[in-house]
Amino acid sequence: MPIRRAAAEELPLLQDIERAAGEPFRALGMPEIADDDPPSLDLLRTYQLAGRAWVFSGTRTGRPDGYLIWQQVDGGAHIDQVSVHPRAARRGVGRALIEHLQRESGAAALTLTTFAEVPWNAPYYARLGFRTLTGAELTDGLRRIVAEEASAGLDRWARVCMRRTASPAP
């Protein structure tokens, strides 16, 4: 799959992907999510400089169709955002980015936070092998992330933390 590190000049394109990927939330009665600003260029640049911003470019133009940004949290790889442009939806772009992270990070587990009832969020990640964590299973770092998301108003809708352990090598 055509996955590579994001280039500095592509960061505005990642914002465009985020905006486009947010539009389907309107149909679910979540216009606030659709209207939410994408990650700032400064924040994306921080991920990019750390080598933690990857893009999927499946077209001949080389233009990104999706991206993933991540950070280390409590010894694991935490997906801060994975977004796919609607023009590339349902083609395995998100899955490919997540699989790439699992391989490249070497982390024993991947974690993420997501909307519990949005079909392309928690149910999708469950199909990829993620399981919902109970409150007692949350690490300090995940609790911090949940608190930050709540302060941003994301707890208006049901949210969950999910985890997937690395598969043993074949």
Automatic annotation (TrEMBL):
Residue span, N-acetyltransferase domain: 1-149
Keyword flag Phosphoprotein: no
PROSITE patterns per UniProt: GNAT
GO cellular component: ribosome
One Pfam assignment: Acetyltransf_7
Keywords assigned by UniProt, alphabetized: Acyltransferase, Ribonucleoprotein, Ribosomal protein, Transferase
GO molecular function: acyltransferase activity, transferring groups other than amino-acyl groups
UniProt entry tagged with the keyword Lyase: no
Record's protein name: Ribosomal protein S18 acetylase RimI-like enzyme
